[in-house]
Every structure is written in structure tokens, then in C-alpha cells.
Amino acid sequence: MKRFNSILIANRGEIACRVIRTAKQLGYRTIAVYSDADAIAPHVQLADEAVRIGPGPVGESYLLPERILEAAAASGAESIHPGYGFLSENAAFAEAVEAAGLVFIGPSAEAIEVMGNKAESKRRMIAAGVPCVPGYEGHDQSDETLLAEGAKIPLPLMVKAAAGGGGRGMRLVYDQADLANAIKLARAEAESAFGSGELILEQAIIQPRHVEIQVFADSFGNTVHLGERDCSVQRRHQKVIEEAPCPIMTSELREQMGRSAIDAAKSVHYRGAGTVEFLLESSGAFYFLEMNTRLQVEHPVTELITGLDLVALQIAVAQGELLGLEQADIKLEGHAIEVRLYTEDPSQDFLPASGPVELWQPATGVGVRIDSGICSGQGISPFYDPMVAKVIGYGPTREVARLRLIAALKETVLFGTTNNLRFLTQCLEKQQFIDGLSTTAFIAEEFSDTDLADPLPAFADAAVAAVLALQLEHRGLFQRALGVSEKLKNWTSASPLVSRKQYQFDDLIYDLCISPEGKEGYRVSAMDTGESRTVVVTLVELKDTRVDLLFDGKRLTATYKTPKKGQLYCSIEGRSAFFKDLIILDGLVDEAVGGGRVIAPMHGLLLDVLVAPGDQVVKGQVLAVLEAMKMHYEITAEIDGSVTEVSAVTGSQVATDDLLIEIAAHEDSVE
Predict the structure, then answer these.
(1) pTM across the whole model
(2) Hey, which residues are catalytic here?
(3) CATH code for 597-669?
(4) What is the architecture of the domain spanning 459-580?
(5) Can you give the residue ranges of the ATP-grasp domain (predicted)?
(6) Of the ranges 329-343, 369-383, 447-461, 643-657, which one carries the lowest mean pLDDT score?
């Protein structure tokens, strides 16, 4: 095979940073590619060289093979690492890379082609004797055939895109009457995400564990597995928590699943890193789900328990080297748990979010690893997947790993855009997870709407925020003043100084009075909140983004950021909130959006607008379909009424909170 000394990473975000780090440690020259939306992204800064490949939308940059190859030619790159997502499982791209005289750090185009298509891979696995879920994976893709075949499969059944993965192009059907619409939606989403509307149908395995086997192979036919990962905790068929090893795995079951995974890899003459995914029932029966012909998002947990660098192994195999590992060489030590940090709103059905990164401050500590692709001052773009980082806890036992991970999550801070940090901690603290009994139904079973709702800040947090905000204001005033001694702070010859802060969260208003107490302390009293409570907050040391303080004598550390006057992000022991001082902001409170005003829940492309002025609609009726962050979302009416105005235009880009449709409520729908 052709040798190489430079690597272009055809990706972005945390995986691009991850690959670049190992490649640089091994002495390779690294080349990043970036869109206009990623011009200041960390992966651009980390690489030795960076090449612009187009505008922000993926269809105009990261998904264009010709732009990647042009960047490789311009930079003199000799190989390409695809990361995951984007073009990583595009057989035509792998073929084009090799045709251009470059080395593709991944499997052959033929292996990608077979395994990248759920229908073809399932047919191949059946032939290889790998256990598969009953269903339909035929070539005839007409609606009539899919409906007829679906009628033969016991309910519930799953409609899946044959190409791609990540939960896109998937619909779970409990009623045959819903099958036609599920096929329509899955096909549309699949065509948009993967350029192919081919579907398969499968009997849905209810409440299984999602267990995958990491395989590795070289060009000489040597193939091993590196143990399993449990990826059962998911939302919208996308993984949230992964761990290795699987909590219920036995040596016998690992050997059986490992052998099936190796058989699957060998059936397509696999080369490099790959993952064979299975559904595991409580009975111990397991079924082939798919094979990912690339590095997985969750590969760090395997690295931590095996001591292997999978990116380094990928590069070595791509250089034509022997794998140098026998199955007996693979030892699994300790336990690792990874969580995916998404910019999304768990309280709104995990709706993706985009916006600024006011402050990104990842945790540090023993047994903690964080792979991220963001930095303070950057923006979270609506054009890409909302996963921005992975937080991993490792320890000699599962419980040590879990506790270290919880501590890391509470220390980690992401201000500016809604995210799932609190939800991840909630998952790790659920008894079902602690007992290692989570299945793919975990989130549905363990979380109610109340659990997922954002909790209102407590009086204690508001008191700390008020004192911190006041102290920052004082510091700003002293910095602008000339010849004023710090000793004059809080001094007055008249009555005691009293400052006021007012914060509102839904119907809860904290009206706070703050007065000096001692040298660096402040007494905070609540007014008109139903709580006749007073506390003393003493600032011990104020740093740029952190403050050490005493709250009624208890030592605390808070992380903060002030994006604008009167605004303060504050995180205390993992509890984060955004405080807006209504007094500084002239008492203006954001108007609530009524149920008759339909607004865009996020940035995205309007694929379809289904109503016009004068139409009568009912609560729950689909009004429009929005594409954002590679997913399709149905925007529904919140009330019964008559459409009075439609601002939305099919095919247009909309921003978060843009007004799309106005509905005049029917009298009987007004409470």
C-alpha cells in the first residue's frame, strides 16, 4: 500500500480534533477543512493547515466530495481520514479518494457499500449465518409492496432507512393504519439525510439492550474484536450514554457476539475499525442491527478499557502494517462510561438548539476524559449535528466510573445555548441505571415531563447570583473611576446601603434586597416571594469566570459569565440558570408567545407548509415540516382555530422564534 506522511481530516467538531491530536502525536502533518460557519472552530486552529471548502450548509461544503478532494490537492495531503458522519460511509467518496492517488483511512469502498445499506447488509448477514431480526429487506420499494410486507410483520414494526443511521429515517409503527405515513416520513427524511429513500421493515424488538462489538482488521485478513459497548440509553434512536463493558455481559455471551461480529467483518473482507451492532434480548438472544464502517462516536470507552488508541491503529492499518494483535492479546480492564453533550432542550422533546457559546469550561480530574469541538466565543450552528462534546468517566469499577462522571458533569459548564448537562446527570443517578438494567426504553420509562422540565432556580442560587452581579458592577465602576480607594466600597455616612435585584422565572419572581455585612459579605433578603428568608453570602475570591464564596458559612464555588449588562449566567454545583435583572433592564419582561402564534422552534429549512389563510385547524394538526440538524420536525397547532396569517414559505430558511403562522382561537378552545 502507498505510504503517507500527511492526513486531511474530512470532518469537523470534536472528531476532527480527536483525529488531529493523535495524528500530530505520531508526527503526521494535519490538514483541516472548514465551512464559513466553522472559520474559528477549534479543529481549524488545532491543525497544521486549514482549507475553506464552502458555505455553512453541509450540502455546500462537508458533503461535497469534490470540495474535499480539491482541498487535498491544494494542501498536498496524501491521505484522508473521514471521521464519522458526513462522507465517512460514502462508498463513492472512498473510491474517489483512492482514484485520486490518496489513501483512504478506512475500509474498502465495497465493504462500505455492502454494510452501509441496511437491506444489502442484512441479506449478506443472513447468508453468513449471523442472527438477524425478521422483516423485509427486498429490492421492490413500491408503497404497495412495503404496505403488503408490513402487514405480514407482527406489530409493532420499525420502518428504517436502508442507507445511513443515527436514528434518521426511522419510524416506529404500532398501528397498521399509521404505516403509510411512517413510510412517507421515513423516506423523505432518508432522501434528505442520505440521498436514498430505500427502506427496510423489521419487527420491533421491544425493550432490548443495544450492544455493539468493536472489530479491527488489517489488509492481511487478521481480525479481532475489542469487546463490547452497551449503548442502550437513547432518545429518538440516537445514543446518549455508552459504556464498556456491558453491565450484564458474560464471558460466554461475549465470545458468541464477538464471533458473530468477526464473521460479519470477514464476510466483506473488512479492513480497519468497524462496529457490529446487535439488539440483545433479556433471554440472551441477539440480532444483527447494522455495521458501522467507521470509527464510532463512543470509541473512547473502548480505548480506556483496552489501553489502545483506535485512531493510531486506523492509521497503522491504512499504512499497510500488520494489526499486530491476536484475540488473546485483548484484555478488558476497568469500566468506562461516556455521555454525549448535546445542545438540545430535553423539556421540549430534546429539540436541537443553536446559539452562542458564552462560556465553555470542561471539567478536569482523575479518571475524566472530555473530547470536545467547541470553545468560548464560538457559535453552535444550526447546520450540524447538536452533539458538541463527550464526557467520559473511567475507573476500576463501574460505580467509580459513574461517580467520577457525575462529578465531571457538575463541574462542566456550557453557557449560552440550551443543553442536556442536567439531564445526563439525572440519567446517571436513576436507580435502573445504577443497577445496570437500562434498556432502549430507559428514558421513556424513567422520565416524566416533570422530570425533564427545567427546574426553577432556588432562592439560594438567586441570592448568590444577586451578590455576584452586584460585586461585578462594583468592580466595573472602580475600574472606570480615577483615584477612588477600594476601602470606600459599600461605605456611606447615611443609612445602610441597600441594593435591589429582581429576577423572574415563569411565574416565580425573586425580589431581593442586598446590603453589606462585614468586610466582604452581603445580607440578601427575599421580598414578596412567599419566602421570608435571609442569608449571608461572602465572596472569598473572585476570578474571571469562577468565584469562591461562603453561603451562610458553607463553602461553594460558582462559575459565571456576564454576556451583557443586567445578564448573568451562573452555575453552582451543577445547577445552571440565566439571571436577567429586571430592574437594570427597565422592568421589561419578555412577552410570552401565545398558542395562536406559531413560531419556529429552531433554525432550519421549511420543507412544507400545509395550511393557508382561512383554513380551520385543530389542536395537534401538522401545520408545517421543518428540517434542522439533519432531522425532520412536524410543527403542530397548539389550539383549535382559524388560520389568519401565514408568513412561512416552503423552501425558505427560518431562524429560531421567527413567526410562521397565526391562528385565531375558536371560542370553545379558549379557557
Answers:
(1) 0.84
(2) 294
(3) 2.40.50.100
(4) 2-Layer Sandwich (3.30)
(5) 122-319
(6) 643-657
